[in-house]
Design goal:
4 helices, about 180 residues, about 35% strand
């Protein structure tokens, strides 16, 4: 079974280019009583599109959104979560600012949303799919939920790490070091 993690298309691209190695998530409306958690250690990055994405990131406001063919989903990246935790200290979350593309105000809003203050943080190793995986979109992928079940990955798809081993190890030390100093 293939699991997809729904994330902003621009964040998927940042993860897929090695610009970002952390995922910060509060959770979708349809996460249920338990709320969001990183339930899966391995997942495909399922890009979601909505026009407000650019304004909530540090990217230039004229950054174009990727658009798959009408009625299609295009998966380009696979992620392995090396660790995940609910971070409840504002300073530790703020220390992650150099490691993601979201504006500080967006992360602060997520942190303070609902009764449990904090955000879930996962440090991931990202792999590029060769070739990209395209399949038909379906209503079963919709809604405000983070996890979706995908069709089976086509045979012959290979995975290539976005960052080499040394760059990934350096990033891991930087992220953990920043959080520890906060």
């Amino acid at each position: 079974m293939s699991i997809g993690f729904k994330e902003w298309a621009l964040v998927c691209e940042a993860l897929g280019t090695g610009e970002q190695s952390v995922i910060l998530r509060k959770g979708g409306i349809a996460e249920g009583r338990e709320g969001f958690r990183f339930k899966h250690e391995e997942f495909f990055l399922f890009p979601t599109l909505f026009h407000e994405q650019v304004t909530k990131t540090k990217l230039p406001q004229d950054t174009p959104l990727p658009h798959p063919a009408e009625g299609q989903v295009r998966i380009q990246y696979f992620a392995k979560a090396e660790w995940a935790e609910l971070v409840k200290e504002p300073a530790a979350v703020a220390a992650l600012a150099p490691f993601h593309i979201w504006k500080d105000s967006e992360i602060e809003q997520r942190f303070r949303y609902d009764d449990v203050q904090g955000v879930n943080v996962a440090f991931v190793r990202v792999y590029r799919l060769e070739p990209a995986w395209t399949f038909e979109d379906s209503p079963k992928y919709g809604g405000c939920r983070s996890w979706v079940t995908l069709p089976d990955l086509p045979a012959g798809t290979s995975l290539t790490p976005v960052l080499d081993d040394a760059a990934h190890a350096r990033r891991a030390v930087e992220v953990l070091g920043a959080m520890a100093k906060a």
